[in-house]
Amino acid sequence: MTTTVHGIEEFHGLKGTHLGYSDWHLVDQERVDRFADATDDHQWIHVDPVRAADGPFGGTIAHGYLTLSLAPVLLHDVLHVEGMRLGVNYGCNKVRFPSPVKVGSRLRLGAEVADVEDVEGGVQVTIDLVLETEGAQKPSCVAQVVYRYFG
User: Fold this and answer.
1) 22 within 8 A of 101, measured Cβ to Cβ
2) CA gap 36, 23 in Å, rounded
3) Cα separation of 137 and 123, whole Å?
4) Do 66 and 35 form a contact (C-beta atoms < 8 A)?
5) pTM of this prediction?
6) Cβ-Cβ contacts under 8 Å for 6 (sequence gap 6 or more)
7) If 0-12 CB within 10 Å is exposed, 13-18 middle and 19+ buried, where does residue 150 land?
8) Are 116 and 15 contacting, i.e. CB atoms less than 8 angstroms apart?
9) What residue numbers bound the domain in which 80 lies?
10) Are 36 and 48 in contact (CB under 8 A)?
């Protein structure tokens, strides 16, 4: 299910609404390697499958910030915003990584609109996100993200 918002005023009616879940998305080694190259974080638990097989997770895992960076694209599966002049990622209030995302697993996002506040020329929307790995007992990432939209 995808919620489509047409204009600033529609956001106010979404406060407290769970928007649903994204599709499942594969996190493969190629994606992890590209993220490692982009961030210069080549720690062996992310990029060396042979060494990581004997490590604490039994294989390579995605970077926590890679997991978080997938939130906007996964959020697009559940929330479409139309009729705005501009939308910007305003930041995060809280981010935690309770469990790893093993390479080769699938990840999805659940989202709930936590708060909506008027700001000059627009609206600030706070969204609670839970990114979960298929079959894991704990979420892989929980975050409260903030977006600003201007009409």
Assistant:
1) no
2) 24
3) 35
4) yes
5) 0.94
6) 82, 83
7) middle
8) yes
9) 3-150
10) no
**CA torsion angle for 94, 98, 103, 109 (degrees, to 10)?**
-50
Q: For residues 103 and 27, is the Cβ–Cβ distance under 8 A? A: yes
Please give the distance of CA 90 from its chain centroid, rounded to a whole number.
Answer: 14
**Torsion, CA 29, CA 34, CA 38, CA 42, rounded to 10:** 40
Distance of CA 86 to the CA centre of its chain: 20
State how many domains the chain has: 1
Closest by CA to 17, choosing from 84, 78, 90, is 78
What is the Cα–Cα distance from 69 to 49, expressed in whole angstroms?
Answer: 22
CATH, residue 71 = 3.10.129.10
C-alpha span between 34 and 47 (Å, rounded): 10
CB 59 within 8 A of CB 45: no
Predicted confidence (pLDDT) per residue in 79-137, tens digit: 999 999 999 999 999 999 999 999 999 999 999 999 999 999 999 999 999 999 999 99
Give the tens place of pLDDT for each residue, 29-69: 999 999 999 999 999 999 999 999 999 999 999 999 999 99
